[in-house]
Amino acid sequence: MRLVKFCFFFLAALLVFSVSTPAEADAENLPTVNTRGACLNTNEFVGLIMHESQRLKNGDNMRLIADIPNEPEAREAIAKSGYVLLDEERNELDDYLNFLLEVKK
Fold this sequence. Notes:
Blueprint: H1 2-26, E1 32-34, H2 42-52, E2 61-67, H3 71-81, E3 84-91, E4 96-102
Parallel strand pairs: 1-2
Antiparallel strand pairs: 2-4, 3-4
Helix pairs in contact: 2-3
């Protein structure tokens, strides 16, 4: 009987956690283009951004992560893609930029 109770409460706890966490996780679970470590030109950046955003709708958000030395190409690619730059986070310690973009189709 103890084993049955344990299994029941264990499964109930799993159900509660599996239902409650996805909504919280979706807040930061954005589609991401991570180009760290790659030396890309502007057209390659644009291609990656457009590929990742194919399944997104107008108004959805996505992230672009790029190394600081690639900042000019990344900014030019954002401008070429026509997406809105909502936020930018610079991490000097790890040498990368984190852009938050809004998809415009």
